[in-house]
Design a protein that fits this description.
The protein is mainly beta. The protein contains one helix and ten strands, in the order αββββββββββ.
Length: about 140
């Protein structure tokens, strides 16, 4: 019985170690701020080939810091040579975002750009934070 328990413990430790080696590595994203919008508590990861399309995944909290201005906030992100994708927040609130972006024609994505913006309507241009560039 003792040998069986020892063997079971060894197998579970080995499997646990193998699982830890395949865990994704998440990296911090500096706080992105612009008048009326903040993208904070953000992290990103690059997925390997054949897993989640080899994409760029971004998580964070998007906050409307100007609730009385009547404008919405959003995060824009893009990969490789594709156009910007827009992920809307909610006026007067803070929301969690968890988005995966990838290049469908490639096995894995190599470059990504991210910025936080405030939508100021159709007559005035939106104001955005500095665009952050990430490369594999």
């Amino acid at each position: 019985m003792r040998k069986f328990a020892t063997a079971a413990m060894a197998v579970s430790l080995f499997i646990g170690g193998v699982g830890a080696s395949f865990a994704q590595s998440w990296h911090p994203v500096p706080k992105m701020e612009t008048g009326g919008a903040v993208f904070s508590e953000a992290t990103y990861t690059w997925w390997p080939k054949r897993k989640s399309h080899g994409g760029f995944q971004l998580k964070g909290r998007l906050t409307d810091t100007g609730p009385s201005d009547g404008h919405n906030v959003y995060v824009q992100a893009k990969v490789e040579s594709y156009s910007w994708r827009r992920f809307n927040g909610v006026q007067k609130r803070s929301v969690r975002l968890d988005k995966l972006l990838y290049d469908g024609a490639a096995q894995h994505t190599r470059k990504a750009w991210v910025r936080a913006c405030r939508d100021r309507g159709s007559l005035r241009p939106d104001n955005c934070s500095v665009t952050k560039h990430y490369a594999r």
